[in-house]
Design a protein that fits this description.
Elements: H1 2-17, E1 26-33, E2 39-44, E3 47-53, E4 59-64, E5 70-76, E6 79-85, E7 90-96, E8 105-109, H2 111-125, H3 130-134, H4 138-157, H5 164-191, E9 203-205, E10 210-211, E11 220-226, H6 231-246, E12 252-258, H7 269-282, E13 288-291, H8 297-301, E14 309-313, E15 319-321, H9 330-338
Parallel strand pairs: 1-7, 11-12, 12-13
Antiparallel strand pairs: 1-4, 2-3, 2-5, 5-6, 7-8, 9-10, 9-13, 11-14, 14-15
Helix pairs in contact: 4-5
Length: 341
């Protein structure tokens, strides 16, 4: 009996000597095989918050503080992977730079959160083309949607030690998935491939006169909805001009519709129009340059709430793609080639 008491006492001492990781910071360590970089960057939405040196053998170890438990970005060799960080965690990472995301394994305190995120990403990547789901008949669509939500919930519930904030956010996201898919399905009924396109009428042409969608009947129409104040819109202009040159003389019109409005021009519609005209002239913009003025019916019909937005319409006036690839996306040229343009 005395020996048993001594044994329990020893185990009690060992247990009490186990040190918990301090809650004021977190530790990251691990090894990246086939590494070609000397630094790992940990970034938030606001930018890089920590740079960690990688040894020649791919190992690394460092500590850092984060403002709140959240998904951050682990970056190395110009590749990125999500990682869930929170002060108090002690995470070890193993992976291969040649299969950056899929090879990542996380162990240690707090690791389940990142392993869950990777599993959810893999599920999303295997979902297939969402448009194929939106094209299903209603009964099949509802059945497929319930299956997808069940699969996402199953992944979530299989991780029993997730951070409470992450669990709550993903649970809400899974519930929102049904609403988002349903809204997209209803929109697709009106704006899906082959549906008649909403039209615009009498938009001012920078070259004089007015143009309507009917002005381009018989040709494919690639529409760029933009504004002079929109940085991402301006970034696409060189790519769009390149396409206009490459497809000059072919059965397609490149139509840019400016949505410059009075609120950004001191409350004056005249000033807004002049700003658009000056911009087109200064940048020597090609293609068909139109200004919608006070008529937002076309944009509202396509539910455009962010720009740039690109739309491809067939020679018959039906929708080819209500969210067409950007000019900088190689997928656009592949699409045009498949249409025989």
């Amino acid at each position: 009996m005395k020996k048993i008491s001594i044994l329990f006492l020893a185990l009690s001492i060992l247990s009490s000597c186990k040190q918990e990781h301090p809650k004021t910071y977190l530790t990251l360590a691990g090894k990246i095989e086939n590494n070609k970089d000397s630094i790992i960057s940990i970034a938030s939405r606001q930018g890089v918050i920590k740079k960690i040196l990688i040894n020649a053998d791919g190992t690394f170890k460092d500590s850092l503080k984060v403002e709140t438990g959240a998904i951050y970005t682990f970056e190395s060799s110009n590749q990125r992977a999500p990682i869930y960080l929170k002060n108090g965690y002690n995470i070890e990472i193993t992976g291969n730079s040649e299969d950056f995301l899929k090879s990542f394994k996380f162990t240690g305190e707090g690791a389940s959160n990142s392993n869950f995120i990777i599993a959810q990403i893999e599920k999303s990547q295997n979902l297939g083309n969402p448009q194929d789901i939106l094209n299903l008949e209603e009964a099949d669509f509802k059945k497929k949607l319930n299956t997808i939500k069940g699969e996402y919930d199953s992944i979530l519930n299989s991780y029993t030690d997730l951070d409470s904030t992450l669990f709550a956010n993903i649970k809400a996201q899974n519930n929102q998935l049904v609403t988002s898919f349903t809204n997209a399905y209803n929109t697709n009924k009106l704006m899906g491939k082959g549906k008649p396109s909403p039209t615009f009428e009498n938009y001012k042409d920078v070259k004089g006169g007015v143009k309507s969608l009917a002005s381009f009947k018989g040709k494919y129409v690639y529409i760029d909805v933009w504004a002079t104040w929109c940085g991402p819109c301006i970034q696409q202009i060189p790519y769009l001009q390149g396409l206009e040159k490459e497809y000059h003389g072919k059965n397609i019109e490149f139509v840019s519709i400016s949505t410059d409005e009075s609120q950004r021009s001191g409350g004056s519609w005249e000033a807004a129009e002049q700003k658009w005209r000056d911009f087109v002239k200064a940048k020597s913009l090609t293609g068909v340059q139109l200004w919608s003025g006070e008529d937002y019916a076309f944009q509202q019909a396509y539910q455009i709430n962010a720009i740039p937005r690109f739309i491809l319409i067939s020679p018959e006036g039906t929708i080819v793609d209500a969210n067409a690839p950007r000019p900088s996306d190689p997928a656009l040229k592949s699409m045009l080639t498949s249409l025989g343009i």
